């Protein structure tokens, strides 16, 4: 569903998978600075939204996902993965337990698939699954002043699910209230920021995105999701054997890196472009963006055996690497914790 906020002055639509929301509102550098230094709102209304209610919801989700949510208290915000039996990542979930239900947002276009999968796993348990992709829209507040910005949201006539993490505050707004909330924030001086600034901040924080920075073979250790989205001391769930094996023996086949790209080149690498070392492919590029301070950056997956000091060529662009996942990650799960919860 195309966001009504794309009609706002200066709005330019983003590329897939975010083409239903704005890349920027005319000033992407200033938008990034606002996210970093004050407050900004970001339209993420293209995210899939699923609500899980019922008295068995927490134990049931605990059995299905990689995260320990069995005793989650109201207000708990975390992330989780649903894996296949071989440990490959199927879904990435951003979760909020509000005391009555678990609110989930996931990648654009994946909400209906996630709801259908969850519904197929209900069996006789007391849970209800609702696909709310058409009736709820995620609006994210970012920046050190985001709590003050939150107080500017008008009373929408019902309790508003609010998911707070270190990287931002997600509001599960009624879809029909998205324009009202955005206008109230803008009128109070809170800047709109598009996905270009949001993605730049995400990349700089070492936070991968499912389907953009992953492929069908991706496992949690490669992506740095052990810790933020994978709890290593919980009970059985699909794919846990792979997680335990890699954690105890170490050495996943690939590792996530942050790429610092040559700033003299005007273009960014294409998603899926080869990461090359001396003319041979050693990995693949994922998401890329221009950060307001770091310049052009990208995330990439490279072979574990590639030395950490290696310089690359990515789609013809010179790139240095910053380690996100240590090549020897395993029992110590050494993830470079610039990353913040998604």
Automatic annotation (TrEMBL):
Pfam families associated with the record: GCV_T
Residues of the GCVT N-terminal domain: 30-151
Record InterPro entries: GCVT_N (IPR006222), TrmE/GcvT-like (IPR027266), YgfZ/GCV_T_CS (IPR017703), YgfZ/GcvT (IPR045179)
Gene Ontology biological-process annotations: iron-sulfur cluster assembly
Protein name: Folate-binding protein YgfZ
Ranges that cross the membrane: none
Transit peptide recorded as keyword: yes
Superkingdom of the source species: Bacteria
Upper lineage: Bacteria, Bacillati, Actinomycetota, Actinomycetes, Streptosporangiales
Annotated keywords: Transit peptide
Gene3D superfamilies in alphabetical order: Probable tRNA modification gtpase trme, domain 1
